[in-house]
């Protein structure tokens, strides 16, 4: 319960901060905002799960809300990665299509898609029969993240209109998205799709424990998406390396013989 309580105020503070970053000429935070809203839903459901209400219906309702928020968060991670890819690989298309209205339409589609996929499955089949469809749903973004990162790195040299600092920030965000999805979601994807793994209680607990940390990881995604964050990190690393080299350098003996 303590981990959920610690993540809750962090996500609330970050969500409030990122709302203040939105400008009419910068639509990228809109996807981050919706990503953090989906994380907010997951955190609320995790707190209810820890409290363990006596009414089983309430528990099931919050379980469905949690799964809905998790599916929506995956969709918005794809939106964040896709937008960063378009900035480098298709800059003209991105700048002409970059409007608040278009971003709102995409957000509505991402919020609606889990409902269209998830609700019919809830009422038509048992939760156990949904393991394979869930595994396929969460597996689909994985090759997309790899494609977005590879395509962005390949197109970096041709994107002469994008500043160097912006290129670093875009690549850092894409690497972080792929890293988050690989470390936190891939174990659960394997659990959904491999029947032998489902029989291992230890892997069951570990895989879903990793997914619970995705809202906290998305906070770092927001930090890296801000201008100057990557440059500050690289500058700090360079200073640490220079300080380390200076401390390891032998001091010349200036005393007379």
Structure in words:
The protein has one domain: Rhopdopsin 7-helix transmembrane proteins, CATH 1.20.1070. With 257 residues, the protein is mainly α. It is built from 12 helices and no strands. Keywords: G-protein coupled receptor, Glycoprotein, Membrane, Receptor, Transducer, Transmembrane, Transmembrane helix. The chain crosses the membrane at residues 30-51, 57-82, 102-124, 130-149, 170-193, 205-224. One of its GO terms (molecular function) is G protein-coupled receptor activity. This is G-protein coupled receptors family 1 profile domain-containing protein.
Fold blueprint:
Layout: H1 2-19, H2 28-51, H3 56-89, H4 91-97, H5 100-124, H6 131-139, H7 141-155, H8 164-193, H9 195-198, H10 201-212, H11 214-225, H12 229-248
């Amino acid at each position: 319960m303590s981990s959920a309580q610690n993540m809750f105020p962090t996500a609330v503070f970050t969500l409030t901060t990122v709302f203040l970053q939105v400008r009419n000429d910068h639509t990228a935070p809109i996807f981050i905002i919706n990503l953090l809203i989906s994380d907010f839903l997951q955190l609320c459901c995790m707190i209810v799960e820890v409290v363990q209400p006596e009414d089983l219906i309430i528990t099931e309702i919050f379980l469905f809300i949690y799964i809905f928020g998790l599916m929506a968060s995956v969709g918005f991670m794809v939106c964040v990665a896709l937008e960063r890819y378009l900035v480098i690989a298709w800059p003209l298309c991105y700048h002409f299509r970059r409007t608040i209205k278009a971003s709102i339409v995409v957000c509505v589609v991402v919020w609606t898609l889990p409902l269209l996929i998830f609700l019919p499955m809830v009422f038509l089949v048992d939760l156990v029969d949904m393991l394979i469809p869930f595994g396929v749903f969460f597996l689909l973004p994985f090759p997309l993240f790899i494609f977005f990162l590879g395509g962005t790195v390949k197109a970096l040299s041709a994107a002469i209109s994008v500043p160097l600092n912006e290129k670093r920030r875009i690549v850092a965000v894409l690497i972080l998205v792929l890293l988050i999805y690989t470390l936190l979601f891939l174990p659960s994807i394997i659990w959904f799709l491999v029947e032998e793994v489902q029989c291992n209680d230890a892997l069951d607990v570990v895989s879903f424990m990793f997914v619970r940390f995705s809202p906290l990881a998305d906070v770092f995604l927001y930090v890296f998406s801000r201008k100057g964050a990557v440059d500050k990190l690289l500058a700090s690393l360079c200073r640490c390396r220079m300080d380390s080299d200076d401390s390891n350098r032998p001091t010349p003996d200036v005393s007379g013989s």
